[in-house]
Amino acid sequence: MKKKQGFLLMITTVLTINLLGAIAVRFLADLKYARGRVLAQRGYMAQSVWVLEQATNLWPWEPRYYKDLARGHAVLAKVGANADDFSMYASQEADRAVQLNPQNLVTLKSVISTYYILAQIDSRYQEELEKYVTQALNLCPTDPNLWYLSALSYSLAGERSKAKLAIEQALKLKDPYPEAENLYQEL
Fold it and tell me: How far apart are CA 97 and CA 94, in angstroms?
C-alpha cells in the first residue's frame, strides 16, 4: 500500500510542477505581450516587434500575440527599409492569428487592418484583404464597421461602385457614420 501511495505522490508532484511551469511561461509571455503593446503605443515599433516575437516564442498558441505582431511588422514595412521582408512577416503572422482563432471578429478586424496597410504598400496583398473582409462579413453581416472596411478595400482596389455600395450598407446599419460619409464624398 505504501508503494502505491508513494507512486501517486510522485505522479501528483510531477504533474503539479509541470502545471506550475506552464503557468509561469504563460505569465511571462503575457508580460512580454503587455510590454510590446506599450512600446507600440509609444511609437517604438521595432522594439515592440522584438518583444512581441519573444511572447509568441514563449506561448505560440495565443492569437492576439500574432495579430499585434503582424500589425507591427506591417507598420515597419510601411515606414521603409526591408519592406518586402516585413510585409512577408506581417502576412505570415496575420494568417497564423486567424488560423488559431478563425471565428473571432476582433482578430479578423485586426488582420483586415494589417492587410489594408500591406495592400497600400503592395497590391499583391489586396486579394488577402478582400478574403478576410468577406470572412468577417460572413460572421457578422450587421457590423457597420465591417462594411466600412469593405468599402476601404474596394476603394483601394479602384472599385468605386462596389465601395459606394458597401458604404451605403454601412450607413443603413449606423447613421450617422462620419468616417463612412467622408469616404463616400471622396469617391
Answer: 5
Q: Which helix H or strand E contains 1, and what residues bound it?
A: none
Give the residue carrying C-alpha cell 453581416.
141
Which stretches of the chain drop beneath a pLDDT of 50?
A: none
133 within 8 A of 157, measured Cβ to Cβ: no
Q: Coil, strand, or helix at residue 81?
A: coil
C-alpha cell at 2: 505504501
The pLDDT assigned to 139 comes to 94
Residues, the chain: 187
Is the separation of the CB atoms in 146 and 137 below 8 Å? yes
Question: Three-state secondary structure along 29-52?
Answer: HHHHHHHHHHHHHCCCHHHHHHHH
Chain centroid to CA 31 = 18
Confidence (pTM): 0.87
- Supply 16's cell numbers: 503539479
DSSP three-state, residue 159: coil
- 74 Cβ contact list (under 8 Å, min separation 6): 86, 87, 90, 94, 114, 115, 117, 118
The SS3 assignment for 72 reads helix
What pLDDT is recorded for position 2? 73
Whether the link from the prior residue into 176 is cis, omega within 30° of 0, is yes
